[in-house]
Structure formats: C-alpha cells, structure tokens
What does this fold into?
Amino acid sequence: MEEDVILTKQIKVEIEGRLATVTFNQPEVMNALDGVMMKELADIVDQLKDNSSVHVVLFRGAGRAFSAGGNVKAMLDPSSPMKMEDIMIDLSRLALSMYSMPQITIASVHGAAAGLGCSIAIACDVVIAEESSKIAMNFIGIGLVPDGGGHFFLKERVGIARAKQLIWSGKVLDGKSAMHIGLVDEAVADGEAWNTAQQRAQVILHSPTASMAATKKILHATGIAELEKILKLEGEAQVAMRSTTDHREGVQAFIEKRKPSFTGQ
It folds into this structure.
C-alpha cells in the first residue's frame, strides 16, 4: 500500500490508505508546542479534515511524551516573543477542526499529556492512555486558563463541576485515574498505548466508517456554536492572563524550578 509522508518543521504526518498518523516530533522538549508548532498542527488538521480518502486519524508523540503542553521557555524568549492573539487564532482553528472533522480521531497517550497537550488529547474521539501517563490541565501553575478548547472538551468528558476542580487544582492524573472519571476511554499497560491505538484504528477501518462519521456529526452538531463561544472567551482570557503578575511569576518559577508565590494580581 502506498504511503505518503509529510514532514513539517515539528510534525510528521503519514498517510497509508484510509489511515493518517500525526506525530508530534519534538522529543527533545517532550513535544512542547511553540507558536510555529501550533500553526503547523492547525494547518495539518485543516488539511486532513478536507481529505475525504482519510477515515481515521491517529495522534501520538515521539519520544517520552505525548505533549508537555505549551512551550513555557518560548514564552520568555525575547528574540521571538509569542504573540498570544495570533496563537489563540491558531488554537481556535485547531479545536474547531478536530471537533468537526468527519474522521474518527484517536489519541495514543504516553508520558505527559499536560496543558495544551491534554486539550488536544481529549479533543479526540477515542483517548487511550498508558497507566503511568501524567494527564493534567495544569495551566493554573503559570497563571493561565486552559486553551485549545480545554474548557469545552473537559466539560464534555467529565462535566462542569469536575472540570472546575481539575482546572483549579492542576491535578496530575495517571491513566487509570483518568479513565475512572471518564477523562480517557481506556487505560493500558505501559508501552502498549501505541499498539492498542493501532489495533483500535484497524477495528474502526473495518467498520462502517460513514455511519460512524454521521453519528459524530449528529452528536457534535449542537456543540459547534458552544465551542466557538468558549474559544472566543478562552482567547480573551488568555490575552488578559498573559499580562498578569501571577503569570510572570509562574513562568519564572517554572524556569527556576521553584514553587511560585502568587498574589492574585
């Protein structure tokens, strides 16, 4: 079977028949996403969404993690400052495309799926996580709010009350704990997420995928407008949070590997 491979600066896409695999390819930083990678990912998902020959999309991370989230060090880089308004546009594109794409999406999670990495993972239709995975919506640690539709996807999976507690605490869950509350769909032994995800993809590919896609479209139809509204609010909040003293303190504490001292400012 012919295979197409697309390499961007930070992401690898392989298309084999009706299956596409998207690999975050920055293992040296645990696939932490900077502005370039966020735009690349949004562009790739947009392209896959419009590819009618692809029916299943797998998302995975190279190296030791799915994705450690946004690249915190990049936030402090004076030579290439992250422009939050532009980043929010790309993250909104990404979240809307993942929620509305007709393909069935599967996340293969090992190691960290934190912050934005968590948002991307739980945006998938099927989330398979290894038992020792570290899954966290931990934006609170640097004084930010979840983005990439994190509020929406958390609420869809665990409800509003539990979503608030997970966001406010930044609690790190292992695969079993995450499955217990419905944050992920299956917890597997360490080293088995990728094999399990591939097996699940084959089961889906041998199922009536047109019927599955129709069900996804029906169930997601009323959520599109809500997701758009939440993404707008996330963008506004994130821009505001970036200018707070607490955010600067959180980032500095992260870099210096110490506990932050927040003041509510």
In short: The chain has a mean pLDDT of 94.
